[in-house]
Design goal:
The chain is α/β, with parallel strands linked by helices. It is built from 13 helices and 15 strands. Helix 1 packs parallel to helix 2, helix 2 packs parallel to helix 3 (103-112) and helix 5 (146-160) runs parallel beside helix 7 (193-210).
Amino acid sequence: MDIYECGEKLKALRIGDMVAKIPIIQGGMGVGISRSKLAGAVAAEGGIGIISTAQIGYDEDGFEKDQAGCNLLAIRKHIKRAKEIACGNGLVGVNIMVALKHYKEHVMEAVAAGADVIISGAGLPVKLPEYIGKAKTKIAPIVSSRRAADIILKMWARRYDRTADFVVIEGPKAGGHLGFSDEELADIENIDYDEEIKDIIECTKEYGEKYNTHIPVIVAGGIFDHDDIIHALELGADGVQIASRFVATKECDASDEYKQAYLDAKEDDVKIIKSPVGMPGRAIRNDFIKRVEKEKQPVDKCYNCMKKCNPNEVPYCITKALVDAVNGDINNGLIFCGANVGRINEMTTVHELMKELVRPTDKKIQDESETHDIQNVYSQKDKMIS
């Protein structure tokens, strides 16, 4: 069935010939936060699970000497594992940053491994269609403005005579690297981002008409609950992408210490930082960030991760900082997060979180006849689990 009724209707997300029963994409989080366990669990619920390829092979034997080779090995391994966990229910994809030194290789490896979708940001994924070739893998750029969307879609149309399979709009409340200036982020409450979302949707419609197709639009950044999902759909979006809330799940690939840092974080712990990637980022202001604010942290080793990175100039090594954090050294690592991390206060499971997200809040629950489809889906799942 295409429509899941939960007080208000959530339609299945159709991306070309691929379908996700629930229009929720779990956002890619690196290093090591969203790998096969998390992505597979989300896909098993009928959503789209996303693996981050950023230094994905950090725990592979030989990583210290051969980061590139270990990352490619891990891409293959984690896509395979995630698909096994999903059991054919939802879709499994990857998030690949344009800023990566081995961006092309990551894309081609993900395609060869059978990734259903590739989402690409942290730069303009100008050559992504070229690297995909004729593969069935669906591709989406991450954009934060109509201007960025128009640039990418126009370039893809001119160079490759094709358009995006879907588009992810990442707003100013997202976690990790952000496509906004420091000035914009400092005045975030006065940004009318709903209008920007509508403008981007109009832009995608123009290119969709050119290629006689519908380009689904996914809204990300600050999506926390069912009401946020409904709001995004009312703006004209086809689905949402949620990242931070999936960290506090048992299936998340991060350490327990990392998850606890999310549970302990308060709203005023969140900080916009300068990332070695060259973009502002949102993170928890821990001891590591406090040291970075005072002075440059020494870089003893280059992990060959970013295209534009001079170890002698960057404020710290982002790979080391992210690996330390995911392994549980939360005082000496970088913990990216979304703006709503302070609202996350309990550990849950992917199953329970997805069930919460697709159902309305108590005040909006309507009579049983209006809600029985989605309730039946999760009642059956609950029985299987028990």
